[in-house]
Amino acid sequence: MAHSQNISLDEARAIMRAQLVALTETESVLLGAALGRVNASDVSSPIAIPAYTNAAMDGYAFAASELDESGAARLEIIGSALAGRPFDQPVPRGSCVAIMTGAMLPAGCDTVVAIEKTHVEGTSMIARPGQRAHQHRRLAGEDLARGALALARGRRITPADLGLIASLGIERLTVQRRARIAYFSTGDELRSPGQAPGAATIYDSNSYTVRAMLAAQGVEMIDLGIAGDSPAAVGSALDEARDRADMILISGGVSVGAADYTRQILAERGSLSFQGVAMKPGKPIGFGRIDASGKSLPFFGLPGNPAAVMACYYALVREAVSLLCGDLAGELPKLRLISDAAIGKSSGRTEFLRGLAYRDGMQWRVRLTDAQGSANLVSMSQANCLIELPHENTGVAAGDTVSALPFHGLI
Ligand code: AMP
Ligand code: MG
Question: Domain 335-406, what fold?
Answer without folding.
Answer: Beta-clip (2.40.340)
